[in-house]
Design brief:
Layout lengths: L3 E2 L6 E2 L3 E3 L9 H13 L4 E3 L15 H13 L6 E6 L12 H15 L4 E6 L8 H13 L3 E7 L3 H14 L4 E5 L8 H14 L2 E2 L26 H8 L2 H17 L3 H10 L8 E2 L4 H10 L6 H11 L3
Parallel strand pairs: 3-4, 3-10, 4-5, 5-6, 6-7, 7-8, 8-9
Antiparallel strand pairs: 1-2
């Protein structure tokens, strides 16, 4: 496994990250444990979650994913095998939201307890919080790093302007900087990242761990008609966003390239992302070991210039 450097953090991560939003939600605990074991056994080390996962599910309050990972860590003893990333800032209810220093201190303790670990490798601001000075938020993270509770910090869902401002604040005040960015980016969702975030991250050596690598499953080819929305819990939202002329054009290109490489559309979609400038490790989820092995195989797929051009043309906007 060829590991990649995550920004300037010193963290070395696998070229694909397992998205933990499914743990305790669409993957029950036994399945989640099997997925985590299979991920590490395949040589991968990067796992991403968030305190808010999966608060959106009926009867859930948030923290379900972290708790499942924590129980797996306790049972497996594999903490030293993984780079563990989680996030803070999304609304957890009862006023628990945002990036105030006092709340960050409270939230990190709750995450550490659920994860059953003494440190988080990558702690990320899940959303920008413009109500709190960047210096205050970054200062709180500095305290956590000094205390050994966090190794590096990252940002998620930040605009290019705000990420640049945060990087400048860190440099000016001698504070830890965001070493990673977690943006929305895949073959369908390209514009926002490629416009200003990608050149900034490349220039500043900020690692990129993009989410929705498979566009909520659409790029696997799972959803090709409106009737396919019934295939999963998030099918209706997926088809509403992606099932259109451009989406079908992208699927057709994925099918063509996949056939040439004896691969699947999902594998080709992940391989394309891994070859884009600045991308460190796309984040993708699986709810079965078979799906996980398909993702693992995708990291071994090297697309040639013709395949990349075909996919770029099919996914061009406008």
């Amino acid at each position: 496994m060829q590991l990649r450097s995550l920004g300037r953090s010193g963290l070395q991560v696998s070229p694909l990250c397992f998205g933990g939003n499914v743990f305790g939600w669409t993957a029950d605990e036994a399945t989640s444990f099997a997925l985590l074991d299979a991920w590490v056994d395949a040589g991968f080390n990067f796992i991403d979650t968030a305190d808010v996962y999966s608060r959106w599910a009926p009867g859930h309050t948030g923290g379900e994913s972290e708790s499942v990972i924590g129980r797996w860590l306790k049972r497996s003893g594999k903490r030293h095998h993984i780079v563990l990333a989680t996030k803070v800032g999304k609304d957890m209810g009862d006023g628990k939201v945002g990036l105030r220093p006092a709340y960050i201190r409270q939230a990190v303790e709750a995450s550490l307890q659920r994860l059953q670990t003494d440190h988080i490798d990558l702690y990320q601001s899940h959303d920008d919080d413009t109500t709190v000075p960047l210096a205050d938020t970054l200062g709180a993270y500095a305290d956590l790093i000094r205390a050994g509770k966090v190794r590096a910090i990252g940002a998620s869902n930040y605009s290019a302007a705000r990420l640049q401002e945060a990087l400048q604040t860190s440099e000016r005040l001698g504070l830890p900087r965001y070493e990673s960015l977690q943006p929305l980016f895949n073959l369908y969702d390209r514009a926002v990242f490629e416009d200003a975030l990608q050149p900034l991250c490349v220039q500043q050596q900020v690692g990129v761990i993009n989410f929705y690598a498979l566009a909520a499953g659409f790029l696997t080819g799972k959803y090709r008609t409106a009737a396919d929305a019934a295939k999963s819990a998030r099918g209706a939202n997926t088809t509403a966003k992606y099932l259109n002329d451009r989406g079908l054009r992208i699927l057709a290109a994925l099918d063509a390239v996949a056939q040439r490489y004896n691969a699947t559309p999902g594998q080709v979609a992940v391989a394309w992302q891994m070859m884009q400038p600045g991308i460190t490790a796309p984040i993708a989820s699986a709810t079965s070991v078979a799906q996980l092995h398909e993702l693992v195989t995708a990291t071994q797929l090297q697309l040639d210039s013709d395949a990349l051009a075909q996919l770029d043309a099919a996914s061009a906007q406008g």
